[in-house]
Amino acid sequence: MTRDPSSDSRISAEDIRRRKGGVPIVCLTAYTYPVARLLDPHVDLLLVGDSVAMVLHGHATTLGASLEMMIAHGQAVMRGSAKACVVVDMPAGSYEASPAQAVAAAKRIVEETGCQAVKLEGGVDMASQIAAIVAEGIPVMGHIGLQPQSVEKDGGYKIKGRTEDNIAALFSDAEAVEEAGAFAVVIEGTMEPVAAKLTHHISIPTVGIGASAECDGQILVIDDMVGMTVDRVPKFVKEYANLRGAITDAAARYAAEVRSRAFPGPDHVFTAASGKDKT
Ligand code: KIV
After folding, report:
1. Atom of ligand 1 nearest to the CA of 29
2. Ligand 1 atom closest to Cα of residue 221
3. What is the model's pLDDT at position 230?
4. How far apart are alpha carbons 65 and 19 in whole angstroms?
5. Which neighbouring-strand residues pair with 151?
6. Which pLDDT tens digit goes with each residue over 87-143?
7. 191 pLDDT exceeds 50?
8. Straight-line distance from the first to the last Cα atom of the chain, in angstroms, rounded to the nearest whole number
9. Domain membership flag for residue 5
């Protein structure tokens, strides 16, 4: 991709906006320093998603995320990455009340993490929040379709775009997010043909999750993608590794070796003969 040479070495939100219709944008969530370091060379965008509340903190929904939680994980991901565009999710309760509330929270996230952009859920209903944050010079990524922060209001994780009324609402949401100045928009849990049509309908990149291969980019939750999810794995997830199995196997072998005193063996202890004075 072509990058603006005057910018720092990171991919900017503007770089992402220019990828509309081009080579698909590779996005993953990241929440920690070591994982950000591993992912950074391979992705265009790292999202510090509010899914962190479920994935790392064990909450039942993303409503368990707080501004402090998002900032702490945003700082870790910024420390662990050098190239990716880092986007931090605005947690539920930090932006919905008013544009002024949204601007205050977005400024705090950007000032305390140094991230490139924030993301918030909502379409027509959140357009004034998006416009107000963008007016402050902070790039915003939208999030339409299935919105996990609305799971209690919606009565579960329901796929969008099944009825004519809902399809019309999705088009209004996509247009509202685009007009409000978002640089890109996540489309989650939406019928494939609808997600494809939305992608061709708007001028900003769409990033799909449970959406369509025709989206301008794709995102998955990192723990889902590497097989770390211990509960139900959603249909739209492809597991590219099985860390669940690797960790279970490692823990079982370690437990057996501790119990049989096979660990630590001669290679993992310090003796006069080993001559090592460093760990
Ligand atoms: O919080 C998150 O991980 C997200 C992605 C699923 C897009 O919003």
Report:
1. 3
2. 3
3. 86
4. 30
5. none
6. 999 999 999 999 999 999 999 999 999 999 999 999 999 999 999 999 999 999 999
7. yes
8. 43
9. no
Instruction: Quickly count: other Cβ atoms within 10 Å of residue 250's Cβ.
Output: 11
Same-domain check for residues 217 and 250: no
Q: What's the average model confidence in pLDDT over 140-157?
A: 96
Number of structural domains the chain divides into: 2
CATH of the domain at 77: 3.20.20.60
Ligand 1 is surrounded, with C-beta below 6 A, by: 29, 47, 49-51, 62, 89, 143, 186, 188, 209, 219, 221
pLDDT for 275 beyond 80: no
The DSSP code for 122 is: B
> Do 219 and 255 sit in the same domain of this protein?
no
Residue 4 lies in a domain: no
Ligand 1 atom with the smallest distance to the CA of 219 is 7
Nearest by Cα to 257 from 245, 272, 246, 268? 268
Catalytic site includes residue 96: no
- Residue nearest to ligand 1 atom 2, measured at CA: 49
- Whether 120 and 145 map to the same domain: the answer is yes
pLDDT band at 276 (very low <50, low <70, confident <90, very high): low
> Where in the sequence is the domain holding 272, given as residue range(s)?
243-279
Q: Classify the phi-psi angles of 258: left when phi > 0, otherwise alpha if psi is within -120 to 50, otherwise beta.
A: alpha
Q: Answer yes or no: is 1 within a domain.
A: no
Q: Give the residue, out of 209, 220, 225, 233, with the most ligand 1 atoms within 8 A of its beta carbon, to mutate for a pocket test.
A: 209
Catalytic residue among 96, 111, 164, 188: 188
User: Average per-residue pLDDT in the chain?
Assistant: 95
104 within a domain of the structure (yes/no): yes
Ligand 1 centroid to residue 184 C-alpha, Å: 14
Give the pTM: 0.95
C-alpha 221 – ligand 1 centre gap (Å): 7
Q: Does residue 54 sit in the same domain as residue 156?
A: yes
Confidence (pLDDT) at 207: 99
Residues 156, 270 within the same domain: no
> CB under 8 Å to 135, separation ≥6 — which residues?
181
Confidence of residue 6 (pLDDT cuts 50, 70, 90): very low
